[in-house]
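Session log. Operator J.P. requested a structure for one protein chain; no other inputs attached. Running the standard single-chain path with token output.
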Amino acid sequence: MSVEAGDEYVAVGRISGIYGVKGWVKVFSYTRPRHNILNYSPWYLKQGKTCRPVELQDGRVHGEGIVAHLVGCDDREEARGLLKAEILIRRQQLPELDEGYYWADLMDCRVVTQAGDELGRVVQMLETGANDVLVAKQQITGSEAQERLIPFILGDVILSVDIVGKVITVDWDPEF
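Structure written below.
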């Protein structure tokens, strides 16, 4: 099965390793808290251009990470075949927010300064110890692109986020 056209999917983690000999996998979760990834099933595992649904049979916190057992994955070699698979869920599986937005909502938003200078489009969000960072990429010429790392500090650097209009207005020097 492939991801169906028209459905909106969100990446929530990836298979980062194998755990034991009975088909368990290590999971790197993008959710906060990390163990929230275990609240979603089915997962849709994306490997290359293929994407298939899998049911979560069991999972738990293990040290600082997550381990999971998927239905039908019963030995180490089957688990090895899932390495580096991206874990997606359908957008409608996420709980509705009373306010705010998910990082996935920020992807592909235009980033502009107060003066209207284009700084690119959001291609990634990074979590750092001090504050989150927005990664904006702008195509300059042909194959050349400029990447900007902008601290995601609401009210200081990030002045407004318009999810519907897909525009983030920032107080940021375009030359930086």
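Operator note: DSSP finds two helices and 13 strands in the chain.
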